[in-house]
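User: Please predict the structure of the protein below. I'd like the answer in structure-token form so I can feed it into my own downstream comparison script.

Assistant: Understood. Taking the following sequence of 497 residues as input:
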Amino acid sequence: MKHDFSRPQRQSLLGILVMSADSLQSTVRALFPILIITLLKGETSKIYFIIAVAAALAFALITGYLKFRNFSFFVDEENEEFVVRKGILSKTRIAIPLNKIQQVNISQNLVQKLLKVHALEVDTAGSSKTEVTIKAITESFALALKMRLLAEGLLSNIVSQDTSENRQATVPFISVSLMSLLKTGVTSNYIRSFGILLAFFLSTFQHLDDYFTYTGTDSGIIDDYFNTTFLLRFIAFIVLLILVLTLLVNLGRTVLRFYDFKVTKQGNALLLSHGLITTRNTIIRPEKVQTVTVGRNFFQKKFNINDLKISQASDMEHSRERQKMAMEIPGVNEAEKDALLTFLLGEVPERGFAVKPNFRKLVFQVFKTILIPAGLFYCYVLLSPQTAEMWPVVPVYVLFVGILIYVGFRNNRLFISPEFIIYQRGAWDVDTTFVAPHKIQGITLHQFFWQEMSDVGTIKIYTAGGAVSFGLANFTQLKKLANYWLYRVETDEKGWM
């Protein structure tokens, strides 16, 4: 079916429901604490609760309708731009040059699955977030628009191979099994999930403290009950609970996000499709890839699985947003990893000679993460002698952190070969990032005045997909490497995009 994208288009009529659901979700999140307090206050307040819920539903429906009505998009063929108009009170016109479009993703959440519509997201090379999202269009329309927006540099058979009729006949380049996802779920992302859950429990305790203060509960009774021994056991229980929940959260997140993960070759590009509740389709073109990172830990090595992160061009000022935008391929074995590296980088990079960090880096890490925290804890014990029973925690902390610092120092290396820069780091999760010299956008060298006598410093290599920072290392050697890489950038005929 032919689609005329040169004329202003609206979303599917079902987009009213999709946008209303988004508005309702935002409203409930904003008013959730007030609604809960109102509900718990008594029978009279329940009437106000029902009124508030009805008002939120009405507001969501009206907002969804207005968003649908005022949203339109088309391709300006004359200026070669993708134009989107949106807004309720404040109208916005977004014009994206077609040659700036970095990625077009098709996704589908639970509401969209029920309504049988898809969302289309447009990312540009100069933005750290999704530039435009079309919430509700049919699958055939989304695929046709995706081909039109990515027409430059793509083969025309990309979408024709991705239609519903041909999808079953397409043989996946790589297919990640459910067992591989389960292995990945129980062996990765410990620190991030642990931090999130720890923040949740700390926030919960803070709310309990505020509740006791608000209700006038005698804090003396609580202090007598929560003695130091009980507190230590309670902390140990909470830590154990967080560890168990971390495994469960990682497992659930991995399966939900990456279920039925398939990588399919389509011309000179890869199509990534995955998701259980929210499905997502993403195209990767090798010439757009800036960095590739392979990560694994001890357990993943035993299970023969790797996690890949692929970064394309994005705003260089927002590193956290850039990390979120990186495309992940979980649970691939060694053969699949090598096949992906060959397709994306042209070959499996070989490690050349190694640049090692100076031992001062190890000393600085010990000072920052062991000596300072231990010193602060000692001062706290002097001010509060009743906490002296917690001293056994200190040697455990010192031993654990010391091992991590030493292993991380041993793994921290910069490998140099004629075709690639390979940056390795990490203590438990060891990540290896591959950068081709012709992708370099800039290099900075940094040295504090007190480091001049010891001739150590730091180098930072910028690409359009992120930066690689390495140090403390021999500063004279780093300057020679920087000059060599800048020479390669000037003389290499390969483009960075």
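That's the full token string. The longest helix spans residues 228-258.
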